[in-house]
Amino acid sequence: MNEPVRGLVVSHASLAEGLVQSVRQIAGADADALVAVSNEGCGPDALQRNVLQALGEGPGIVFTDLPSGSCAFAARKLSLEREDTAVVCGVNLPMLLDFVFHRELPLPELVDRLVSKGKSSITGQCREGAHADRAVSG
After folding, report:
1. Residue 110 class from Cβ within 10 Å (0-12 exposed, 13-18 middle, 19+ buried)?
2. Which pLDDT score, from 0 to 100, does residue 130 have?
3. pTM score of the predicted model
4. Chain centroid offset of residue 106 CA
5. How far apart (Å, rounded) are the C-alpha atoms in residues 63 and 67?
6. For a FRET experiment, which of 12, 101, 108, 134 has its CA 20 to 30 Å from that of 19?
7. What's the average pLDDT block by block, 10 residues per block, for the chain (138 residues)?
8. For residues 3 and 125, what is the distance between their CA atoms, to the nearest angstrom?
9. Rounded distance, CA 83 to CA 4, Å?
10. What pLDDT, on the 0 to 100 scale, is given for residue 77?
């Protein structure tokens, strides 16, 4: 059995805390399995220090809200300097729920699984009724 991977959600403002609290409420996940870090009030160096401290030792995944911006930049820089650290951008709730139930998987396998889960959880539907009132230009 592999060492459980620790998850860290790094986001703008309070999004990370909301996602982590939702996962804990839904799945009853351990407080140590998934941790929230906000970029609020942090410069690049302070944010990177906060992320490094929250990751602790052992394998970890840093989930970020956007693929660019201060959170992703800090995560990517850290992953270049730290072994057994992956970065997954575009975090969503189904992805995090899957993470807490499968965090014993090997890191590369877990990352592939989470990216697939995150993508498959995004769906959309648009149905215009016969009486839809649309503005037509042109």
Report:
1. buried
2. 61
3. 0.88
4. 18
5. 10
6. 108
7. 90 95 92 92 93 93 96 95 95 97 96 97 84 58
8. 40
9. 15
10. 94
Largest separation between any pair of C-alpha atoms in the chain: 63
Enter the tokens of residue 111: 């990352």
Distance of alpha carbon 133 from alpha carbon 11, whole angstroms: 38
Is-contact 92 115, C-beta < 8 A? no
**Nearest residue to 67 (alpha-carbon basis) of 90, 83, 85, 45:** 90
**What does 23-40 look like in DSSP terms, one character per residue?**
HHHHH---TTTEEEEE-T
The residue type at 64? T
Side chain identity at residue 89, one-letter code: C
